[in-house]
Design brief:
Layout: E1 4-7, H1 11-20, E2 26-29, H2 34-39, E3 55-58, E4 69-72, H3 76-86, E5 94-97, H4 110-117, E6 122-127, H5 132-136, E7 141-147, H6 152-160, E8 165-170, H7 173-195, H8 200-220, H9 225-228, H10 231-242, H11 247-257, H12 268-283, H13 288-297, H14 303-311
Parallel strand pairs: 1-2, 1-4, 2-3, 4-5, 5-6, 7-8
Antiparallel strand pairs: 6-7
Helix pairs in contact: 3-4, 7-8, 7-10, 7-11, 7-12, 7-13, 8-10, 12-13, 13-14
Family: Belongs to the NAD-dependent glycerol-3-phosphate dehydrogenase family.
Main location: cytoplasm
Domain Glycerol-3-phosphate dehydrogenase NAD-dependent N-terminal: 4-150
Length: 318
């Protein structure tokens, strides 16, 4: 019996499939797997990592029926439409959201979308500081697994952990999700700072104030502060704001330098900035960095204007 299935053959979905298949059979679904099936490698998203023989590929969601755990690793802005078409294939099982962001259409995070579409499912969130290539190559990685169910959470933690992938358990889905969402927006801003040549001191200040925004929004929405101080918040923020492997950071750096962003890369922070700006405005939450990122990526402000506006804000206590 296939115990674990993964929906989405992007870099992260493929990496999870590769590492989990070291421990038992895994099935990976995507709309088009012809090249991966031929090459036994995801050359487009994760080159140089062979697919183990215990990992099977399918383009038919019905083939996932034997899996008791399904990891959903789709881009955030594609998740709602996918569930609207395919929820009947997923309901009644443990569904683990691996998307990071906020849905533009509904303002909801991935776990809320899964719970709404699949009311009979047990929903969890897998998030934290990680790059797909590190996971796929077996490099030590620690993530947060958030699940409100006190029985299902520990079981999922045990089944999804590997010798190199250590999962820390939480029951705070809201905090885990918002950490993973907001850090992408702050990473774009950090990239802008470095691309504009403003220096490491400015980046450190921006990361710190960005963390304050993340914490302010999450606590307002019911998250626990300690969740944001953990892997899914501060840990992920540090990684994505300081590494060239972060797509969001590279995107921001290109904007800051006045050059064209790379083509074909999924930059979740762009849509997330817009979604969170709207959410914060409706809730009366002050999120100046997120608001400025949304304005820059929307073409309403230049990077220079955004930085000037942030520095000109009234002086206040920390």
């Amino acid at each position: 019996m296939t115990a674990i299935a993964i929906i989405g053959a992007g870099a992260f979905g493929t990496a999870l499939a590769v590492t989990l298949a070291q421990q038992g059979p895994v099935i990976l679904w995507a709309r088009d797997l012809r090249d991966m099936a031929r090459d036994r490698e995801n050359r487009a998203r994760l080159p140089g990592v062979p697919l183990p023989t215990s990992l099977s590929l399918t383009q038919d969601l019905a083939d996932l029926s034997a899996a008791s755990i399904v990891l959903v690793a789709l881009p955030m802005q594609q998740l709602g439409a996918f569930l609207a078409r395919n929820a009947t294939h997923l309901d009644g099982r443990s569904l683990v959201a691996c998307s990071k962001g906020v849905d533009l259409a509904s303002g909801k995070g991935p776990s809320a979308l899964l719970a709404q579409a699949c009311p009979g499912a047990t929903v969890a969130v897998l998030t934290g500081p990680s790059f797909a290539a590190d996971i796929a190559r077996g490099l030590p990685t620690a993530l947060t697994l958030a699940c409100a169910d006190p029985v299902a959470g520990p079981a999922l933690q045990a089944q999804l952990s590997t010798p190199a992938l250590r999962l820390y358990r939480s029951t705070d889905l809201t905090g885990a999700e918002l950490g993973g969402a907001v850090k992408n927006v702050i990473a774009i801003a950090a990239g802008m700072v470095m691309g504009a040549g403003l220096g490491d001191s400015a980046r450190a200040a921006l990361m710190t104030r960005g963390y304050a925004e993340m914490l302010r929004l999450a606590v307002h929405l019911g998250a626990r502060p300690e969740t944001l101080a953990g892997l899914s918040g501060l840990g992920d923020l540090v990684l994505t704001c300081t590494s060239d492997l972060s797509r969001n950071f590279r995107f921001g750096r290109a904007l800051g330098a006045g050059s064209a962003p790379e083509e074909g890369a999924t930059v979740e922070g762009v849509a997330t900035a817009r979604a969170i700006t709207a959410l914060a405005r409706n809730r009366g939450i002050d999120m100046p960095i997120t608001t400025m990122v949304a304005a820059v990526v929307g073409g309403e402000l230049t990077v220079a204007d955004a930085m000037t506006a942030l520095m000109a804000r009234p002086l206040k206590e920390e």
